[in-house]
C-alpha cells in the first residue's frame, strides 16, 4: 500500500502544479487583455518587457 500512496501523492502534486500553471497563464492573459483595453500595444509591450527583465534578474 505505501507504493500506491506515494503514486497518489505524486499524481496529486503533478495535477496541482499543472492546474496552477494553467491558471496563472490564464490570469496573465486576462491582465494583458485588460491593459489593452486602455493602453496602446506599444505601451503594454514595453511594460511586459520591463516585467520580464525584472523576472530574469531575480534568477
UniProtKB/TrEMBL annotation:
Top-rank taxon: Bacteria
Name of this chain's protein: Uncharacterized protein
